[in-house]
Amino acid sequence: MNIRVLGCSGAIAAGYKTTAFLLDADVLIDAGTGVGDLPLDALAAIDHILLSHSHLDHVLGIPLLADAVLRMRAAAGRPPIQVHALPETLAALRQHIFNGVIWPDFTALPSRDAPVLSLHPFQIGDRVDLGGRFIEVLPAAHTVPAVGFAVDAGAASGHAHWVFTGDTGPNPALWQRLAGLRLSHLVIETAFSDDEAEVAHVSQHLCPADLGHELAQLAGSVDVRITHIKPGEIEAVMQGVQALNSPHRISALQAGQEMAL
């Protein structure tokens, strides 16, 4: 398995795209603006989208993706793209995006019998089976119902896991679960610098000082990639991160980066 970073920024600017990861060629983990860099045939190959939560920077690629590939997938007789998320996240999509006002309801287009999108709820703790690839739904602590994901790389890897925390503040439940998993990569958000710690706490994101406390709960030495930094904040955030006394190998995630599992 391979994971390609399509976007990992907390906002947009030239060269910065919001959160989206492509697992192999057919699974999106979050669907931010990074999705728009894929060519049309690659967009049409996506069969599953897993969403961490309902915030715009993680979901806005879905309606545009659906519109782009509707004709191609219908002509090929392809099944609906399955969108997997918490029930609260799916309800938010229905109410606030696919409502006929912000965007047409692509869960009923081109027809209710053969739509381009279908919605599938999961719960924290579920292991989603996508053609023999297992992805566990992890707890997150954010301002809306939210999750992270652990992608199991399979028996050949000794069941190493690629973990994405999603948007989260301090989250004891996450570390309790990760203590029972073998990690190959940890992708964890640090959206704000330490001088913006108050904003980070109100919005339930991490700053470097909080990141240090969180990583202290993770045993061993793990490859840690920092995501969701706002454009213009990378230097300040990473200075704080690099000052941490951590045994883990920490660096900033980059768009276009690939991680083999």
Overview features:
27% strand; RibonucZ/Hydroxyglut_hydro; Ribonuclease BN (tRNA processing enzyme); globular; seven-stranded mixed sheet; 14 strands
Shape: globular
What count of helical segments does DSSP give?
8
**Main sheet strand line-up:** 6-5-4-3-2-1-14
Gyration radius, rounded: 18 Å
Beta-strand percent range: 25-35%
Mean pLDDT: 97
Q: The biggest beta sheet, please?
A: 7 strands, mixed
Low-confidence stretches: none
- Report helical residue fraction: 10-25%
Number of strands: 14
Structural class by secondary-structure content: alpha/beta
Order of helices and strands: EEEHEHHEHEEEEEHEHHEHEE
The N- and C-terminal alpha carbons lie at a distance of: 5 Å
InterPro entries: Metallo-B-lactamas, Pdiesterase2, RibonucZ/Hydroxyglut_hydro
Protein name: Ribonuclease BN (tRNA processing enzyme)
Domain Metallo-beta-lactamase: 17-205
Pfam families: Lactamase_B_2
